[in-house]
Amino acid sequence: MINREISSRLAAGHGRRVTQLGEAAARWGGQVPDDPGITELADLLEAAATNAADHPGGPGHTPRALLAGAVENLRAAARLGGLLPAVTLWHLQRAIDQEHAAHHQQQ
User: Fold this and answer.
1) Against a cut of 0.85, is the pTM above it?
2) pLDDT in tens, 81-95
3) Taken in order 70, 76, 78, 83, is the CA torsion positive or negative?
4) Which helix (H) or strand (E) covers residue 50, if one does?
């Protein structure tokens, strides 16, 4: 029963984070498909990184660099698939954090 509860919570967290990342990709001008996969979101944010202005926010913390980091985390999550749900969730959350930081610096 405990494993089922943990699995449900991880799946719900995964879904929320994918939704947040889809919204983030749309905010950067990406055409997000219905029910996007992690790899599709990585591709969209990679395109955004290419087009992002390079406003300095500190060493290595430009919007472009932050988005590139988010893309790396998304690609890592995609490689893991369903193998290690908690680790996948960590990579998704890290991607969200990096995208948020890039968005705030872009403004």
Assistant:
1) yes
2) 888 999 999 999 999
3) negative
4) helix 38-51
